Model the fold of this input.
Amino acid sequence: MNAEEICGIERSRLRSLAEPDLELARLLHAVDYQLITPTGSPLSKEQYLGLISSGALRYRAFEPVSEIAVRLGADYALLRYQAHIRIEEGDHTADFVCWHIDSYELRDGHWQAVWSQATKAGA
Done:
Protein backbone atom coordinates (compact mmCIF):
# COMPACT_ATOMS: atom_id res chain seq x y z
CA MET A 1 0.00 0.00 0.00
CA ASN A 2 1.25 3.48 -0.78
CA ALA A 3 -0.06 7.00 -0.06
CA GLU A 4 -1.76 7.30 -3.45
CA GLU A 5 -3.71 4.08 -2.88
CA ILE A 6 -4.89 5.07 0.62
CA CYS A 7 -5.99 8.45 -0.77
CA GLY A 8 -8.03 6.55 -3.36
CA ILE A 9 -9.69 4.54 -0.59
CA GLU A 10 -10.49 7.77 1.27
CA ARG A 11 -12.05 9.33 -1.85
CA SER A 12 -14.13 6.15 -2.30
CA ARG A 13 -15.26 6.41 1.32
CA LEU A 14 -16.38 10.03 0.84
CA ARG A 15 -18.27 9.11 -2.36
CA SER A 16 -19.95 6.19 -0.57
CA LEU A 17 -21.29 8.62 2.04
CA ALA A 18 -22.43 11.23 -0.49
CA GLU A 19 -24.10 8.96 -3.06
CA PRO A 20 -24.96 7.12 -0.67
CA ASP A 21 -23.60 3.63 -1.29
CA LEU A 22 -24.19 2.16 2.16
CA GLU A 23 -22.89 -1.29 1.23
CA LEU A 24 -19.50 0.19 0.36
CA ALA A 25 -19.64 2.56 3.34
CA ARG A 26 -20.14 -0.38 5.70
CA LEU A 27 -17.09 -2.13 4.23
CA LEU A 28 -14.87 0.96 4.49
CA HIS A 29 -15.78 1.76 8.13
CA ALA A 30 -14.57 -0.54 10.91
CA VAL A 31 -17.17 -2.01 13.25
CA ASP A 32 -15.78 0.20 16.05
CA TYR A 33 -15.53 3.34 13.86
CA GLN A 34 -16.21 6.66 15.55
CA LEU A 35 -16.71 10.11 14.07
CA ILE A 36 -16.30 13.33 16.03
CA THR A 37 -18.46 15.85 14.17
CA PRO A 38 -17.65 19.54 13.66
CA THR A 39 -19.98 20.27 16.60
CA GLY A 40 -18.03 17.88 18.84
CA SER A 41 -20.62 15.10 18.92
CA PRO A 42 -19.33 11.52 18.84
CA LEU A 43 -21.13 9.12 16.49
CA SER A 44 -20.62 5.37 16.21
CA LYS A 45 -20.57 3.68 12.82
CA GLU A 46 -24.17 2.54 13.24
CA GLN A 47 -25.35 5.99 14.37
CA TYR A 48 -23.56 7.76 11.51
CA LEU A 49 -24.58 5.37 8.75
CA GLY A 50 -28.08 5.16 10.25
CA LEU A 51 -28.51 8.93 9.85
CA ILE A 52 -27.42 8.65 6.21
CA SER A 53 -29.56 5.57 5.56
CA SER A 54 -32.69 7.22 6.98
CA GLY A 55 -32.13 10.41 4.99
CA ALA A 56 -31.83 12.47 8.19
CA LEU A 57 -28.32 13.41 7.01
CA ARG A 58 -27.70 13.95 3.29
CA TYR A 59 -24.37 14.98 1.84
CA ARG A 60 -24.79 17.17 -1.24
CA ALA A 61 -21.02 17.65 -1.45
CA PHE A 62 -18.14 15.95 0.34
CA GLU A 63 -14.91 16.56 -1.54
CA PRO A 64 -11.29 17.25 -0.62
CA VAL A 65 -10.25 20.82 -1.47
CA SER A 66 -6.63 20.43 -0.39
CA GLU A 67 -3.95 17.85 -0.87
CA ILE A 68 -4.45 14.79 1.30
CA ALA A 69 -1.40 14.47 3.54
CA VAL A 70 -0.63 10.87 4.53
CA ARG A 71 1.45 9.21 7.24
CA LEU A 72 1.64 5.53 6.43
CA GLY A 73 2.77 2.60 8.55
CA ALA A 74 2.67 -1.13 7.90
CA ASP A 75 -0.87 -1.53 9.26
CA TYR A 76 -2.13 2.03 9.80
CA ALA A 77 -2.54 5.27 7.90
CA LEU A 78 -3.28 8.79 9.09
CA LEU A 79 -4.80 11.31 6.67
CA ARG A 80 -5.25 15.07 7.00
CA TYR A 81 -6.94 17.39 4.52
CA GLN A 82 -9.58 20.04 4.05
CA ALA A 83 -12.93 19.13 2.51
CA HIS A 84 -15.89 21.11 1.24
CA ILE A 85 -19.09 19.78 2.78
CA ARG A 86 -22.66 20.66 1.98
CA ILE A 87 -25.23 18.79 4.06
CA GLU A 88 -28.94 18.71 4.60
CA GLU A 89 -30.29 17.72 7.99
CA GLY A 90 -34.06 17.93 7.88
CA ASP A 91 -34.91 21.50 6.85
CA HIS A 92 -31.41 22.76 7.69
CA THR A 93 -28.71 23.13 5.02
CA ALA A 94 -25.09 23.88 5.85
CA ASP A 95 -22.17 24.60 3.53
CA PHE A 96 -18.65 24.81 4.98
CA VAL A 97 -15.03 23.67 4.82
CA CYS A 98 -13.61 21.34 7.47
CA TRP A 99 -10.23 20.01 8.38
CA HIS A 100 -10.38 16.22 8.53
CA ILE A 101 -8.14 13.77 10.29
CA ASP A 102 -8.91 10.15 9.49
CA SER A 103 -7.18 7.06 10.77
CA TYR A 104 -7.23 3.75 8.96
CA GLU A 105 -6.14 0.31 10.08
CA LEU A 106 -5.41 -2.77 8.03
CA ARG A 107 -7.81 -5.41 9.35
CA ASP A 108 -8.13 -8.89 7.84
CA GLY A 109 -6.46 -7.65 4.67
CA HIS A 110 -8.76 -4.63 4.23
CA TRP A 111 -8.16 -0.95 5.01
CA GLN A 112 -10.94 0.47 7.16
CA ALA A 113 -11.55 3.89 8.68
CA VAL A 114 -11.41 3.65 12.47
CA TRP A 115 -11.55 7.26 13.67
CA SER A 116 -12.50 10.51 11.96
CA GLN A 117 -12.58 14.02 13.30
CA ALA A 118 -13.87 17.07 11.45
CA THR A 119 -13.18 20.64 12.57
CA LYS A 120 -14.67 23.64 10.82
CA ALA A 121 -11.94 25.68 9.15
CA GLY A 122 -11.47 29.26 10.37
CA ALA A 123 -12.98 32.07 8.37
Notes: The mean pLDDT is 95. The first helix runs from residue 3 to 18. The chain has one domain: 3-120. The first strand starts at residue 29 and ends at 36.
